[in-house]
């Protein structure tokens, strides 16, 4: 009994000491808590990421979006009993110790994935003491985290050469895509690299990388994870020999949003539509190049219903003057683009109606005497015609009636801030109608979104979470629905730019309701409007505020706005209908060349997904239903990897037993063959 008591005391003492050490010396998780912030578009497409310290790309692994067969093969090679041990695999350690004793040096570590994760968190020299520390840290990690969390940390921190850390960074840089779907050759390379990332870099040491990749494939073959034929086919895959640049769409907006997220789960789902963003960035580059060396361009597209920013082009490119500046977040003169809101509030206040007659004649308002842009006065005009033709004197007259301070307060109350000059407050007040106060361009886009939403202002939504929230918020009313609709109806009558006749899409309600603006000295050329459920803002100019000769909003910005509308709404272009004609007798029927069978399914290079009924221990499986093969020809016989399939009365069925690459062939009665290569992936 005393011996049993002593043993119990010793056991409890060891447990208490271990628990105390575990609390006093916890694993350092600081490295795992810092990852590259990533901005994705609304559908999960990559926009931009920000590097962590020292310019390293460490992108958080996402097991939900990581090829499951890659994870399976990784564990087969690196830690076959990962889900069975508690951080340390005694069998692997004994085997490694025996190998090291025979070699007289450390040639095998016997490290589990958990131990490797511990080493990545706190790197140390490869010694037996370091190995003991890894063992202790691995046990700590297993006590604190689930197996899935440990695997995620490993795949986030694993080095892949140079400044690449984590499987996502490596897959994007080497293969140009996320690790959601990887070929077997790509998987083998990603498994091999972390063990000697610099020595095996495919962009620096392609021969070493190729040998390491093929060695992994042979190990997978030896372990029964893949068949020899599949392994051989993977060895024939071409090896990447250079790194690709990371995506950088919506460079300004995506970077700003990425900087706002923190922690290991540093991903933000933006409202940007990546394909649209890419097309508009190309338009901005073309426009800026055509307008001069120091010119730039910026574009914003806002979904009126949700206020989601679908595209935000901050400049014409980082290689152009001022390209690093996000013009959408800069304060610029709006020129005449605030006039619609002056008229709209005038409609609401009962000061004017669309057909109210206004005098466009030289007029002095105190010390302020505006002139029209073309220095020509038109006499008696309607409010509608004055707005359509952007006449200055009538707009100032309406602003004078509703009050410059009242107009400014209405905008401020809706969250739209005007930046006034430091001097000449009274004169600047009436000059609001002509661009005498600055406004952030994104706020101007927000104003036009309100015009398209019956006069209600809401904040712009830059993330999908904000977009969902904004649909539930009432917003701030800037003007009544009736006033907003009257204003939009007038703006739809604004003439199209020279050479741009409204197409079928731009008739009736789809025709852009837009206004141009030109600031003093031609510094800013603007076109802002509403079309197809979107608010669109286009700016061209010099980012440094320099003057440009004769670059007006109508000439330098409106054509670009119409190009943007085309990108938003243009239907697929259909070819002209061919008029039936009587062909020559010899061409009444096109003769086909009898060149053997044609495979209809599966197509060459396709990935075919199959439904699994049950899985075996070695990665094989039984399917719920076979794949129905199809081809044109007579007397057909099908082969898969050289083995004949049983003939059937109808379409033959193929039941692949494993994932991987297959050679599918069909031979007709005249021994003419067709081959396709396909990849099979299983889904449960």
Sum up the structure in keywords:
684 residues, alpha+beta, 6-stranded mixed beta sheet, 5-stranded antiparallel beta sheet, 22 helices, 27 strands, 36% helix, elongated
Question: Residue ranges: pLDDT <50 for 5 or more in a row?
Answer: 14-18, 424-428, 503-509, 570-593
Measured distance between first and last alpha carbons: 56 Å
Largest sheet: 6 strands, mixed
Mean pLDDT: 84
The radius of gyration computed from the alpha-carbon positions, rounded to a whole number of angstroms, is 34 Å
* Category by helix and strand content: alpha+beta
The count of helical stretches stands at: 22
Strand content: 15-25%
EC number: 2.4.99.28
Domain Glycosyl transferase family: 54-220
Pathway: Cell wall biogenesis; peptidoglycan biosynthesis
GO molecular function, one term: penicillin binding
Describe the structure in brief:
This protein is α+β, with helices and mostly antiparallel strands and 684 residues long. 36% of the residues lie in helices and 17% in strands. Strand 23 and strand 24 form a beta hairpin.
């Amino acid at each position: 009994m005393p011996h049993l008591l002593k043993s119990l005391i010793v056991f409890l003492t060891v447990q208490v000491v271990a628990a105390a050490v575990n609390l006093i010396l916890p694993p350092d998780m600081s490295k795992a808590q810092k990852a590259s912030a990533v901005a994705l578009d609304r559908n999960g497409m990559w926009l931009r990421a920000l590097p962590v310290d020292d310019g390293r790309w460490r992108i958080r692994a996402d097991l939900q979006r990581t090829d499951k067969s890659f994870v399976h093969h990784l564990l087969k090679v690196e830690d076959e009993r990962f889900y069975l041990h508690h951080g340390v695999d005694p069998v692997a350690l004994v085997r490694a110790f025996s190998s090291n004793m025979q070699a007289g040096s450390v040639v095998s570590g016997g490290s589990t994935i958990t131990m490797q994760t511990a080493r990545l968190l706190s790197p140390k020299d490869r010694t037996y003491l370091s190995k003991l520390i890894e063992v202790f840290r691995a046990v700590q990690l297993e006590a604190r985290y689930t197996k899935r969390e440990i695997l995620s940390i490993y795949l986030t921190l694993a080095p892949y050469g140079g400044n690449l850390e984590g499987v996502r960074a490596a897959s994007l840089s080497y293969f140009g895509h996320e690790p959601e779907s990887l070929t077997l050759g790509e998987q083998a390379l990603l498994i091999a690299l972390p063990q000697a990332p610099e020595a095996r870099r495919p962009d620096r040491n392609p021969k070493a990388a190729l040998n390491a990749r093929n060695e992994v494939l042979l190990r997978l073959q030896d372990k029964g994870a893949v068949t020899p034929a599949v392994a051989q086919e993977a060895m024939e895959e071409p090896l990447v020999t250079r790194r690709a640049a990371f995506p950088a769409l919506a460079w300004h907006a995506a970077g700003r949003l990425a900087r706002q997220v923190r922690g290991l789960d540093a991903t933000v789902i933006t409202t940007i539509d990546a394909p649209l963003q890419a097309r508009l960035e190309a338009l901005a580059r073309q426009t800026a190049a055509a307008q001069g060396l120091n010119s730039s361009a910026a574009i914003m597209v806002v979904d009126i219903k949700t206020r989601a920013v679908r595209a935000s082009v901050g400049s014409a490119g980082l290689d152009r003057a001022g390209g690093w500046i996000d013009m959408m977040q800069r304060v610029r003169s709006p020129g005449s683009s605030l006039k619609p809101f002056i008229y709209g509030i005038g409609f609401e206040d009962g000061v004017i109606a669309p057909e109210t007659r206004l005098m466009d004649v030289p007029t002095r308002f105190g010390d302020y005497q505006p002139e029209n842009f073309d220095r020509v006065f038109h006499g008696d005009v309607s409010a509608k015609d004055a707005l359509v033709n952007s006449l200055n004197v009538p707009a100032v007259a309406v602003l004078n009636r509703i009050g410059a301070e009242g107009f400014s307060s209405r905008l401020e109350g809706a969250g739209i801030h005007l930046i006034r000059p430091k001097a000449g407050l009274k004169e600047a007040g009436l000059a609001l109608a002509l661009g005498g106060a600055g406004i952030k361009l994104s706020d101007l886009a927000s104003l036009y979104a309100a015009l398209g939403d019956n006069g209600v202002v809401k904040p712009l939504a830059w993330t999908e979470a904000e977009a969902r929230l904004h649909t539930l918020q009432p917003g701030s009313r800037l003007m009544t629905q009736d006033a907003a609709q009257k204003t939009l109806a007038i703006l739809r009558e604004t003439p199209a730019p020279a050479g741009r006749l409204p197409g079928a899409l731009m008739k009736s309600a789809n025709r852009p309701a837009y206004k141009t603006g030109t600031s003093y000295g031609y510094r800013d050329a603007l076109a802002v409007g509403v079309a197809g459920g979107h608010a669109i803002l286009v700016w061209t100019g010099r980012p440094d505020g320099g003057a440009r000769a004769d670059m007006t909003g109508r000439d330098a910005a409106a054509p670009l706005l119409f190009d943007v509308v085309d990108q938003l709404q243009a239907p697929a272009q259909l070819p002209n209908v061919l008029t039936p004609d009587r062909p020559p007798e010899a061409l009444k029927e096109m003769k086909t060349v009898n060149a053997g069978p044609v495979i209809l399914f599966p197509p060459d290079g396709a990935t075919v997904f199959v439904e699994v009924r049950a899985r075996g221990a070695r990665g094989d499986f039984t399917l719920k239903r076979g794949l129905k093969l199809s081809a044109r020809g007579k007397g057909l016989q099908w082969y898969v990897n050289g083995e004949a399939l049983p003939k059937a009365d109808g379409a033959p069925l193929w039941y692949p037993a494993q994932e991987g690459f297959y050679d599918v062939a069909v031979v007709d009665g005249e021994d003419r063959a067709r081959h396709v290569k396909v990849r099979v992936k299983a889904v449960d």
